[in-house]
Amino acid sequence: MSLYVDYYVYTGGAHGMTARQPYTFDLATGNVLTLKEAAEGNANYVPIINAEIAKQIKVRKLELLTPFKTIEADRPFYLNHNGLVIYFEQYEYTPYAAGMPEFVIPLKAFR
């Protein structure tokens, strides 16, 4: 089971900010899954995810504030019906107007 909660706060200025907190559970154990576990335990999950994000940035022609290099090994994520979802927080790599860009990595990429 995978879900996320968005927290919005407005403290003045041009606009508020949203922070996302994802949760992905193994329903058999009740444990929260790590990114590596969700990537089917593939030891190369970080390079696989990085390559897919870089490809999607190029295809979608996303305007970046700073060049994308890599995700952290424990990067927050969630799952949807299309695969594993990595997202960037507001201003992390893109302007505020881009929202929180999401990158879906099909689970078959880890096999």
Explain the layout of strands and helices.
Layout: E1 2-9, E2 17-24, H1 35-38, H2 45-60, E3 77-80, E4 83-87, E5 102-105
Antiparallel strand pairs: 1-2, 3-4, 4-5
How would you describe this protein?
- By secondary structure, this protein is an alpha+beta fold.
- The protein has two helices and five strands, in the order ββααβββ.
- The protein has helices spanning about 35-40, 45-60; strands at about 1-10, 15-25, 75-80, 85, 100-105.
- A three-stranded antiparallel beta sheet has the order 3-4-5. A two-stranded antiparallel ribbon has the order 1-2.
- Strand 1 (about 1-10) and strand 2 (about 15-25) form a beta hairpin.
- The chain starts with a strand and ends in a 6-residue tail after the last strand.
- The mean pLDDT is about 95.
Largest sheet: 3 strands, antiparallel
Strand count:
5
Unreliable runs: none
Average pLDDT figure: 97
State the strand order across the main sheet.
3-4-5
Short descriptors:
alpha+beta; two-stranded antiparallel sheet; 5 strands; globular
Provide a compact summary of the structure.
This protein is an alpha+beta fold and 111 residues long. The chain has helices at 35-38, 45-60, and strands spanning 2-9, 17-24, 77-80, 83-87, 102-105. The strands form two sheets. A three-stranded antiparallel beta sheet has the order 3-4-5. A two-stranded antiparallel sheet has the order 1-2.
